[in-house]
Amino acid sequence: MATANKNLSVYDKNTIPDASKFRFGIVVAEWNPVITEGLYNGAIEALSDCGAKAENIIRWNVPGSFELTYGCKKMAKTQEVDAVIAIGSVIQGETKHFDFVCSATAQGIKDLNVQLDVPVIFCVLTDNNMQQSLERSGGIHGNKGTEAAIAAIKMVTLGA
Ligand SMILES: Nc1c(NC[C@H](O)[C@H](O)[C@H](O)CO)[nH]c(=O)[nH]c1=O
Ligand SMILES: CC(=O)[C@@H](O)COP(=O)(O)O
């Protein structure tokens, strides 16, 4: 598994642009809050480590990952942010619902990157079980929230 061979939290701060002048929106799904709060904490810590100011970070919550697309669209259109991070945790249950939620969320966020002039970062874990989610939100494989924050800073400065 690719993630098993890569720590999601490792980055070289010397290669990351200063984020002090940028504004970030973070939309967090409320399903699996232990996981999404861990992802959020990873993102906030990385943004701060790279110079982002707390007053320049706006957080909204949405019920679940399926609502991330609408929440990120509204954030980007109304809050004058330079990038948006979509945070969610989808965990396989007994039915095919997992497949539909994951696919719709990934496609919706991809579509926002086509439609909007603001990058929307896909920080949605799509795991088989809670253990895998814990390992990727501050566990042995690092934190995808950290990875997403670094991606957001890089995308804001793309082409600069
Ligand atoms: N099972 C998970 C969900 N399901 C809820 C949907 O995301 C959505 O909120 C509902 O279908 C109403 O539109 N959401 C997650 O984020 N994670 C899950 O594991
Ligand atoms: C991803 C989901 O919606 C899923 O966790 C719901 O569980 P189930 O498939 O058992 O209804």
What's this, in brief?
The chain is built from five helices and six strands, in the order βαβαβαβαββα. It is α/β, with parallel strands linked by helices and 160 residues long.
Task: Write up what this structure looks like.
Catalyzes the formation of 6,7-dimethyl-8-ribityllumazine by condensation of 5-amino-6-(D-ribitylamino)uracil with 3,4-dihydroxy-2-butanone 4-phosphate. This is the penultimate step in the biosynthesis of riboflavin. GO terms for molecular function: 6,7-dimethyl-8-ribityllumazine synthase activity. 5-amino-6-(D-ribitylamino)uracil binds at residues 31, 65-67, 89-91, 122. There is one protein chain. With 160 residues, the chain is of the alpha/beta class. The chain has a single domain (27-156), classed as 3-Layer(aba) Sandwich (Rossmann fold). The protein contains five helices and six strands. The protein has helices at residues 33-49, 68-78, 97-115, 130-135, 144-156; strands at 24-29, 57-62, 83-91, 120-127, 137-139, 142-143. The strands form two sheets. It has a four-stranded parallel beta sheet with strand order 2-1-3-4, sandwiched between helices. Helix 3 links the parallel strand 3 and strand 4 (120-127). Helix 1 crosses helix 5 (144-156) and helix 2 (68-78) runs parallel beside helix 3 (97-115). The longest helix is centred in the middle third of the chain and has 19 residues, at 97-115. It starts with 23 loop residues before the first strand and ends with a helix. The mean pLDDT is 96. The structure holds ligand LW54GNZ2 and ligand LTPLIIQW. Ligand LW54GNZ2 is lined by residues 29, 31-32, 63-67, 88-91, 101. Residues 29, 31-32, 63-67, 88-91, 101 line the site of the ligand Nc1c(NC[C@H](O)[C@H](O)[C@H](O)CO)[nH]c(=O)[nH]c1=O.
